[in-house]
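ESCALATION

Customer reports they have been waiting on this structure for their group meeting. Please prioritize. Original submission:
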Amino acid sequence: MLADIDAASPAIAERLRQYEVLLDLDKAVPAEPMPADPGGALAAAVEQLASALGFAQSVEQAIRDAGIPSELAGRMARLLDKMHECHVITARRHDELIELLPKLFSRTSAVPNIDFSDVVACAPKMWLATRELERAIKAEQSGSGQCGQTGARAVDLWPVLRFEPGCANQTYQHDYLLIVDMGGDDVYANNAGSNVIDVNFSPPNAAKPGLVGTGPAKGCQRGLAGLYRKDCSVSAVVLLDTQGNDSYGVLEQPDSDRICTDDPVVRRMLTGGAAFLGVGILRDSANSADRYVGKTVSLGAAHMFGVGILSDAGGNDTYMAVRNSMGFSLIGGLGLLRDEGGDDVYDYYMPRPLNPSAPNQTDGAGGVRDNEGDGVCDRVPRYTLGGGNMATASGLLVDDAGDDTYRAAFSDVYTTNPAIGGMSLSAGSLGFGGNGAVGTFLDRGGNDRYQVDNPFPGLAVRADAKVVKPGSPSTDSPGARLFEGGSGVFIDR
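Update from on-call: job pushed to the front of the queue and completed.
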């Protein structure tokens, strides 16, 4: 993959080289040795993370009673251990980041010296452990290839582990650090592999109730304001689903966004393999038709030095979000969406205004709240399908095969939220980098179709069998407005 990018932009390929382990699906890495007592190790790993989140509980009997095959129990234990390592780093760096934010968004302060490489370095550890667990599940099912063949029973140990080895269709309404689902056509109306979790609301049968009580998770609907008010918190998260035609994200009547629109939206920000100052992984390893819907900073997206990964093994899938999504990163880190095959559809949606006459960034203007402060109604579509914005961020969308359909939007000039200075910037999609970031779009095969909305003069055409290199307004921000110029590349083979 890096060779494809290097041929068009050696500089961007070099920028992405630090993530090479995440990009090479065939990389042979020796599996870590199994623990001597897999069931005991799994129980200990769950208890360690439960305590770290403030929900200490004893789970060994529940683990033993579930009869989880040793290989699966051991691999889940190893993965949870890696997740705990990453959780500790994220928790330690959180307060430091909160103090840094005013300087980061200041128009007058010098760009602070930023190094959150320890957060980014967690991602390969969690990714490799996730793939080891995936291989163990496939080996367990190799005789029949069907779900429900392990003899194990389901485990629900909120807020850490949900293990579903059967074939039933599940609807997930609560957030977990690790979900392993081995069958069924499932609906994920929760964090869906995002490290931004809601521990305020628990299932009614949880050993300990949520901080607020029981009920469906609500999560952060107001961006950074939600973190400040503890609508959500950050940790390390993996969702692994190995079979079924699944739906990730649910459109509902708006809650926080009701000041903007009446149209259905995904209520939460940061869902679907998304990350904020940590690691969030969504891996669907089935060759099936899945549906992914997000709002903002979702579907293989990252914010504030996180690493968010959405990885789909194949099938005719659909992807849709409002903006800042689908292989997007904002301020450091990596947002990666990779689809390995199938005839896929990538699109965006924009909720209609309550008041068609309302100016953008006012109540009733349509769209959804943006990320800053309490959020203003923002109806400008932008930054999807391989986009990066601000301060060393890298956004990457890779589709390996299939006849795909893409729709995305550009914005020659848009104005940021007044809370961060009301700056006028340009923004794009399909391989666009802004303000010190890089955005990369790579389609590696098939006969593909493209629709670009809001094109501006000089915009290079996105089309099948075409390469648009860095160095034009259609791939790069003009620079000097916030941090420095960005860089993007579009590649369709």
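Sent to customer with the following note: Residues 70-104 form the longest helix (35 residues).
Escalation resolved.
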